[in-house]
Amino acid sequence: xxxxxxxxxxxxxxxxxxxxxGGTFTDIVARKPDGSLVTHKLLSExxxxxxxxxxxxxxxxxxxxxxxxxxxxxxEAVKMGTTVATNALLERKGERTLLVVTRGFRDQLRxxxxxxxxxxxxxxxxxxxxxxxVVEVDERIGAHGDVVLALDEAKARTDLQAAFDxxxxxxxxxxxxxxxxxxxxxxxxxxxxxIGFDQISVxxxxxxLMKFVSRGDTAVVDAYLSPILRRYVEQVQSALGDxxxxxxxxxxxxxxxxxxxxxxxxxxxxxxGIVGAAAVTQLAGFDRxxxxxxxxxxxxxxxxxxEYERAFETExxxxxxxxxIMQIHTVAAxxxxxCTFDGSKxxxxxxxxxxxxxxxxxxxxxxxxxxxxxxxxxxLRPELFPAVFGPxxxxxxxxxxxxxxxxxxxxxxxxxxxxxxxxxxxAAGFLRIAVENMANAIKYISVQRGYDVTEYTLTCFGxxxxxxxxxxxxxxxxxxxxxxxxxGVLSAYGMGLADVRTLRQAAVEQELSDxxxxxxxxxxxxxxxxxRADVEAQGIAAAQVRVVNSLALKYDGTDTTIELPLEATxxxxxxxxxxxxxxxxxxxxxxxxxxxxxxxxAAEAIGRxxxxxxxxxxxxxxxxxxxxxxQVKVFSDDALRSTHVFYREDLRPGDVVNGPAIxxxxxxxxxxxxxxxxxxxxxxxxxxxxxxxxxxxHAIGTTADPVLLxxxxxxxxxxxxxxxxxxxxxxxxxxxxERLDFSCAIFDPEGNLVANAPHMPVHLGSMGESVRVxxxxxxxxxxxxxxxxxxxxxxxxxxxxxxxxxxxxxLDGESTPLFYTAARxxxxxxxxxxxxxxxxxxxxxxxxxVLLDNVQLVREGVFLEDELTxxxxxxxxxxxxxxxxxxxxxAQVASCNKGAIELAKMVEHFGREVVVAYMNHVQDNAEESxxxxxxxxxxxxxxxxxxxxxxxxxxxxxxRADRSAKVDFTGxxxxxxxxxxxxxxxxxAVVLYVFRTLVDDEIPMxxxxxxxxxxxxxxxxxxxxxxxAAVVAGNVEVSQAATNCLYGALGVLAGAYGTMTNFTFGNxxxxxxETISGxxxxxxxxxxxxxxxxxxxxxxxTDPEVLEFRYPVRVDSHTISRGTGGKGKxxxxxxxxxxxxxxxxxxxxxxxxxxxxRPHGMAGGEPGAAARxxxxxxxxxxxxxxxxxxVEMQVNDIFVIQTxxxxxxxxx
Length: 1212
Hints:
The protein has 1212 residues and is α+β, with helices and mostly antiparallel strands. Helix content is 29%, strand content 25%.
């Protein structure tokens, strides 16, 4: 579909083509020789008609028939963004790749940071690895450049040659600390080149920054995708001939096609959208925008306030990238998102119909999608939509197929719920869910980062954006939407406006000082020269190239960096001021007294290639006033409404179109909702404005509606997630900020869990006890602005390091709380007899840290720092770093307050009665989901032995009549004299977690999951101990054993590794804590997963390079201990083998389990292997230890930890 435009660009005697090859459509903006612009849109995949959409579009615009050569002399340049690399990554269809690593790290990229992607699943699925085989080389360079072991080049050459002989032609190289000390990587690169490898990606080239895992992933993805890109480039180039071909990089700059690398291609298309949106929004006079790019497959949102925002570490399709990439948040809600009904609620996405088969209306037998919903409500109409469907690409949308499918769905909904809904109401319900999903995505990149989104303009683009813009703006309280004439192809337009950019980086990792800045001048000069040369080599005149220098700064001991520009006058003082200003705005606090570290420096060369100015359009005068082309009925705001249809070409500057209205754009449809109006600017752009203040939806009703049930499920979850982001951003300690050992949740007035972010299961199921303790002891005395803190295991807590802040949430004018918000974090130290507050040999609760029993932390908005400091520092075993504790508590308060603010907004929008009703409905929905699962279960009984001689026993009895269960822990050992005791709240958490995982559906884990379950825990047992029993192992070890036990009684899952393997080491200067994962248990139709966090924990592991840089230790190896998973029809996951070498004297300790006992097999499957741990002394001797130990380590002693494998399922 070609569309001419009156927009003018710079005149030239040749054509330029600016192309965005998306997942569903390929969009083209062509600049003709006379400077005018023309647009074209076609399906990205249409194998019946053409091989490549971009090339075919150029043919159609130039009127070149198939089979005839494209006249290269007529084309000045082709600038393209492509999803070729993204699709290859998503579908795992890249090149066969060999990975070369330091010996001992063959499994490090697979183990990564050991967290599982989805919390409530029994079958843990990790992203498929991109590399096929691994070569370990003998070499080692220390964290500070010392050569520990020289590279064995002869052995490396032999191994690489063998891989080459097996057919590998692509290799990625990543060595420990190779980001900075590059000599061994360079040597391997030379060896691989001489052998004949076609693609060699070395980590210090693709990402010269610390972090072995993300840098290694980046090297692998570069190797994996670059050959695919090269072939695509050659395919396009051969079709075009001798034409200048450029591609958009994920960082927002163009580069020559032959310099286009895999690591820079992941967000190629969306980056063009940001460039285009930012340029045209600024031209329109708006300086702050939220970019809203809704396409066929997904929606990309971004924040812009004068400069591009980039992330230097992100995750895409399960791959961690350590490379500059536009800060884009993607949500699976596009025009092609599939709409389904699960029997109780509606759902939109995440699955997409894509381009083939596409939506039901696309004439390929596709499912119902968001696009079909707009057809059903008559906002998308065949007469207003391009006729590009059918075998010949000339048929209109198929409305009959859409109406038939919605008619059948209406019958299904009535049968399942008893509610009679029209097809239009159902379609509008799906649209509402999609809008809320997109609004939540925008909150993620704005509200969560401290920006007031109501002050921004929503710049809407993408083929589907104009249909939803007003509704998305309303969901966010935004008053203005901006739509450029090229909104439907703005990503393609952005390709033409983008600069040519090259970014060069170098790691520094040194403390900021004026002396350091002076010494970095040479580094900046070299980086800038290389970057400039690269841009000038692409045909950009030297006068058009500028170089921008920047530094990435962070507080010492943290990973959160702030990128700041470096000017000629920059000093330590000016950088400190700029850093603190940005840090405070983003995270809400500072860390006085903590040094600033320069993590890395960068020089970016920017070559100006196209002006973003637009001349005022020259339009043919219109005779008479604006008149609609048609009047139609559209289902909008819950009713069929008479709606005017206008054609965009009829509009002139100064025109005003009041909603409801449809504006038919040449390449998109814009819907002006009721109470909105569209104003045509002097540039002939559209600005949509709200004409009256939005009132909250009325007459929603309080009975459970399948649309609102999904909306509220998502909203409650999104608020809890915003709380989690706030806590991670504002916390002080590595434990919370980077290991993510925290949880946030929302509770109802009775203290029942309503929704939680997917954090730590052992926290989430037990936090309700904390809330109820506050509720009971503070009833009638709480006031707005109050907050309370507790960690007392016998009064709502779990173990003492887990500190919970609870905030009552009052509505204006009400005297009792309507909600409670709570944030629990594992404090790095809370006192006790050992640093880190995880003593392996504690006998009395007082030895484990400072007890906080229902202490007031904030009184009517005033943080009681002095009072709390006295409590924390005047205990028998006081805290060791009270500044850190206070800072983390402030972060927890900020998190709770964030939740309170968002809940108040929800009540304002939906009304108190509706919110209260759905607070109960989401719990009822979870309850019903669990009851359906319980009905399929059978009675069972099981016992698990722990290494300290204790026993956990559980009996599950199923009542099918009322679909309930009784979980009885009678027969469990009496409370222990050791610390292997778990407070009652931990056992509740175990039961809640296990039954939530039995529901194979995306429901929040809330208190409703426990309503059908009667839990019996004998008082005085190790699962319900009596004060003053020690409990530190209960949260981490007993909880894991109890989870295995309950799964065993239910017969659904073999035992996982059954321990958290808490490993600590330290001295007066250093303190460190980690949990080490093992193998998960197999199920009735799946294998277990090796070395992954299971069940009650999901904390992250510190990157090995970061660990070695910060602490005087060396990770000799961290591998999968193959064969340790239990055998069976389905085998258990394997455990880990982790070896830590000490470079300074320290005390190390283990608090663990399953060193004697083995994780159970199920249904004839064999148990997993037991764990072992020992110390290999520098003198060659060996000392073996049990499940708990404390050991003095000397220089070059090695602590070896082998974690258990998971049990197998079924006889082999």
